[in-house]
Design goal:
Shape: elongated
CATH class of the largest domain: Mainly Beta
Number of domains: 2
Largest sheet: 7 strands, antiparallel
Order of helices and strands: EEHEEEEHEEEEEEE
Number of helices: 2
Strand content: 35-45%
Structural class: mainly beta
Distance between the termini: 34 Å
Number of strands: 13
C-alpha cells in the first residue's frame, strides 16, 4: 500500500525560463526529488504528474526546472502549490509521518512500550518520543529498531536493542 507525502512547496520563480525555487517540507527532500515521480498541486487529489527537467545551482540557491514549464508565466502558476510523492509502505518517509502521533509502540515480543508523542529530527536519524504514562523513552528511527508501521491500526512495531527500554 502506498501513501502520498508532501515534500516541498513551490515558493517563487527564478529567471525567465520557467525555473522555480522550493521550500523543503521533509528531511527526505533531496532523496525524493531525484528518485520519485512527482505530483504537483494544491492537494494530492488535484495534483498532476510532473518530472524534473533539470536542477540548477547548489545548496540553498537551487532552482528546479520542470518539464513543460518553459516561461515565467508557466512558473508563476505553480507558486504556492505543493510537491507530493508516492511512497511505498516500506519507504523511510512513512516512519516520520505526523499521522503516527498517538500510535501505540509495541515490541516484537508483544510488550506495550507506550504512545508516540513526538518525532525529533536529528542529523543522523529521527527519534520517536514515547510516553507510557510514567516514563519518556527515546527510540531511534533506524531499520534495526523500527520494523513496521501500521497506519490503520495506529501501531509501530519495534525490535529494541539491548538496554533501549531499561
Amino acid at each position: 500500500m502506498s501513501r502520498i507525502h508532501p515534500i516541498a512547496k513551490i515558493t517563487t520563480t527564478s529567471g525567465l525560463k520557467g525555473e522555480v525555487r522550493l521550500r523543503p517540507l521533509s528531511r527526505y527532500f533531496d532523496e525524493y526529488m531525484n528518485d520519485k515521480s512527482l505530483m504537483i498541486g494544491f492537494s494530492p487529489d488535484t495534483s498532476t504528474d510532473m518530472n524534473i527537467e533539470k536542477t540548477i545551482g547548489i545548496g540553498k540557491k537551487v532552482r528546479f526546472k520542470f518539464e513543460g514549464v518553459n516561461s515565467i508565466d508557466d512558473a508563476e502558476r505553480l507558486i504556492g502549490q505543493t510537491i507530493f510523492i508516492e511512497a511505498s509502505e516500506f519507504d523511510a518517509i512513512n516512519y516520520i509521518s505526523s499521522e503516527l502521533i498517538g500510535s501505540f509502540v509495541v515490541t516484537d515480543d508483544g510488550e506495550m512500550v507506550g504512545a508516540l508523542q513526538d518525532v525529533i529530527w536529528l542529523p543522523n536519524n529521527d527519534v520517536y518520543v514515547i510516553h507510557d504514562g510514567e516514563k519518556e523513552r527515546l527510540i531511534p528511527v533506524i531499520p534495526e529498531v523500527v520494523k513496521g508501521v501500521d497506519f490503520e491500526e495506529k501501531m509501530i512495531l519495534i525490535t529494541p536493542m539491548d538496554g533501549l527500554l531499561d
